[in-house]
Amino acid sequence: MSNRKKTHDMPMGHRIVIWMAVGLVVFIVCMATMSAKGQTYGVNAAGFFENINETSAQYLD
Fold it and tell me: pLDDT tens for residues 41-59?
């Protein structure tokens, strides 16, 4: 632990939002890589992303 005094520890809510944002970025990168690989195997990447958009819309509602 550092001796520096922290200017107020971040509230838990903010931390969750940051972790969710990080997780979302990682998730999107993974999905983009997977669909890019899928395209070479003849998988429709556009449909793949439509599914992602639908699921994220469900969570955001």
Answer: 555 556 677 777 777 777 6
